[in-house]
UniProtKB/TrEMBL annotation:
One Pfam match: Gtf3_N
GO MF annotation terms: transferase activity
Protein name, as recorded: Glycosyltransferase
Organism of derivation: Lacticaseibacillus chiayiensis
Domain Glucosyltransferase 3-like N-terminal as annotated: residue spans: 20-163
Regions crossing the membrane: none
Record has Transferase as a keyword: yes
InterPro entries, per the entry: Gtf3_C, Gtf3_N
Alphabetical list of Gene3D superfamilies matching this protein: Glycogen Phosphorylase B
Domain Glucosyltransferase 3-like C-terminal: 200-360
Keywords, sorted A to Z: Transferase
Source species, domain of life: Bacteria
Length: 370
């Protein structure tokens, strides 16, 4: 039995697609690194766009990509596939893995249909056939579900996916796990944080309208600022930092807390991307923790329970609570938060939670308990 993780690249040069756009590239690098540290070998493939690729050419390509697989091997693949690949390509890929007798584990990075509408339709009120006609929904229901094992962001994501499959009268295998707080593999070497240095937010300010309504004297540090942001900080205690390489951000965070929040308006969480945080672990979350920084999250987010149980930050119902919530933390309580974070952060930096999730799902696939 051999274990593999599939790596897709968009050029002949080594790298990760979307490295310069948000955190997607860094997330893929870290997950592949964690798998390789468990002994997984990498299979390389290229992203290309050929919707009319003849079936004999596609079959030959799949033999070249996957011909080294043998019975009982394990192949770990990110979901979703690149949008360059159509459903026929993905189905052929899945079929070929199974033809060789290998086990296919999908590491779920994103659920595309949920990003635009995380609320599932009510079968009594909505035509389910129309819902299933969406390419993203069809892929999630008909293709993703063919995996032999699954690693989700959270237990809430797993439950929501089961509910989505029920709309099509499908069931999911019990060979599943989730990685919770996720990972950000970095070497952190800065000093201990102080409780009065404001709140860090990784992202462009002009895209975060919910931050504009905070009191003018509330200290914010913005990482990933754009030119447009300069017009928004007049008379406000906001410090802008230009975007840097994702590997460097943890070393640059200056604040006392890292804010994980997404909303189309202030103060409540509004909009599909905000509601999507009920299920996913945003890349910001492990990034802040990797830098020994307490986090601030929405009370309904998938990450909120982990924050509460480990006492590693603040959990808010509304962003209107933020100024008072930060102000009311004593230095003693903050230092205890830092101590708690420093217990968790090494696990974030070495990929512990994902490694555990990989081993957990492999045990469910390969080991039969009496």
């Amino acid at each position: 039995m051999a274990n593999y993780i599939f790596h897709f690249n968009g050029s002949i040069h080594p790298g990760y697609p979307f490295w310069d756009f948000g955190a997607a590239g860094k997330c893929h690098l870290d997950r592949e690194t964690a798998a390789e540290e468990l002994g997984f070998s990498r299979i390389d493939g290229f992203v290309y766009n050929w919707n009319t690729e003849p079936i004999d050419v596609l079959n030959a390509r799949m033999d070249g990509l996957l011909g080294g697989l043998q019975r009982y091997d394990c192949l770990l693949v990110h979901w979703p596939f690149s949008p360059n690949f159509n459903h026929r390509w993905i189905q052929t890929f899945i079929d070929r893995v199974h033809l060789f007798g290998a086990n296919l584990i999908f590491l779920v990075d994103d659920m595309a249909s949920w990003r635009s509408n995380p609320v599932l339709p009510n079968p009594a009120k909505v035509n389910i056939e129309n819902y299933m006609a969406s390419l993203d929904v069809s892929a999630e229901v008909n293709l993703l579900s063919q995996g032999d094992g699954f690693i989700f962001h959270s237990e809430a994501m797993l439950k929501h996916y089961r509910e989505q499959l029920q709309l099509a009268d499908k069931k999911l295998t019990d060979k599943v796990s989730w990685y919770g707080p996720s990972l950000n593999m970095t070497n952190y070497f800065q000093g201990r944080r102080h409780f009065d240095q404001g709140v860090d937010y990784a992202g462009a300010l002009f895209k975060a309208a919910f931050l504009h309504e905070l009191p003018d004297n509330f200290k914010l540090n913005i990482y990933g600022a754009r030119e447009k942001d300069k017009e928004l900080i007049k008379n406000k205690n906001i410090h802008l930092h230009a975007r840097v390489d994702p590997e460097a951000i943890p070393q640059m965070l200056e604040g006392s807390y890292g804010l994980v929040w997404d909303s189309e308006s202030y103060p409540d969480v509004v909009g599909p991307l905000g509601q999507y945080e009920r299920y996913n672990t945003p890349a910001k979350f492990p990034m802040y923790l990797s830098a020994n920084e307490p986090v601030i999250v929405w009370s309904q987010a998938a990450t909120a329970d982990f924050v509460r149980k480990n006492q590693i930050g603040l959990v808010l119902d509304s962003l209107a609570e933020l100024p008072n919530a930060v102000r009311d933390v004593s230095e003693e309580r903050y230092n205890q938060m830092i101590t708690n974070v420093m217990r968790i952060s090494p696990l974030i930096r070495n990929g512990f939670f994902l490694k555990k999730a990989i081993l957990d799902v492999m045990a469910k696939i390969y080991v039969r308990s009496v």
